[in-house]
Amino acid sequence: MRKANIGNLSLHYLTQGKGSDVVLIHGVTSSMAVWVMHLMPRLVSDFRVTAFDLRGHGLSDAPATGYTSLDNAKDLLALLDVLQIERTHLIGHSFGGSVALQFALAHPERTASVLVADTGLACLRTMRDIDNWHGWTTWKDDLEKYGMDRAWFDAVDEGDAREMFEKGLEVPTLFAQSGRMSRRGKDRLRRLIAQTTIADDFRKVAGLTEQSLTEITVPILAVYGATSMFRNIAPHLEKVMLCCLHRILEGTGHFSVMDSLDEFVSCAIPFMNNPSEFVLAGRTAKNKSQVRIDQ
Question: For domain 2-134+183-285, which architecture applies?
Answer without folding.
Answer: 3-Layer(aba) Sandwich (3.40)
